[in-house]
Amino acid sequence: MEKATLLLEQTPPHMKGVIANDLVILNIVGEEVHYWSPRLTFRVEEDEDDETHTKVAGLIGPRPPVWTLFMFIYFFVGTVGFFISTFALSKILMGQKSLLIAAFPITIVFLLTAYFAGKYGEKLAKDQMEILKGFVREVISFDEKVDNHLEAEHSPD
Q: Of 62, 82, 98, which closes a domain?
């Protein structure tokens, strides 16, 4: 975990990092933050197969309020649309008329709207995602250069 702490010490002013249990969480802060701003959560751990190497594995995506909103939209619209459409379809199969069958295409439209809104948000967050990924890559490559330099100093050649 000391490598993760060293990484956090190098964060630029427009980023804030936190260590929670064995995870490192990086967020964009300041005036650049918007609803779609991403969060990078990753784990830094020693490689079990080769103790001289370190593994970095993570996930970059929206902040928790965005995940919660979209999961609520998908669940609510999908569930309500399913039950109303099923009710309407059962009435039609029994030979009765039901205008509620229009709930099915309306449900599809709402779900597609949520999907494309998410894709739009993903485009808005793309630059900030690249900033977060670039920072981690830069720090990791710097760490590798230091490790390689140290190995070269101690080599028996």
A: 62
Yes or no: say if 26 and 10 are a contact pair by the CB < 8 Å rule. no
Distance CA 96, CA 16 (A): 60
Percent helix, strand, coil in the chain, to 5, is 60, 20, 20
The parent domain of residue 112 ranges over 67-118
Confidence of residue 6 (pLDDT cuts 50, 70, 90): low
Same domain assignment for residues 47 and 77? no
pLDDT in tens, 63-87: 889 989 999 999 999 999 999 989 9
Provide the residue count of the chain.
157
Distance CA 27, CA 118 (A): 19
Tell me what pLDDT residue 25 has. Answer: 86
Beta-bridge partner residues of 91: none
Residues near 143 by Cβ (< 8 Å), separated by ≥ 6?
A: 3, 6, 54
φ, ψ of residue 94 to 5 degrees: the values are: -90, 5
**Total of domains in the chain:** 2
pLDDT for residue 31: 86
Q: Residue 132: count other Cβ atoms within 10 Å of its Cβ.
A: 21
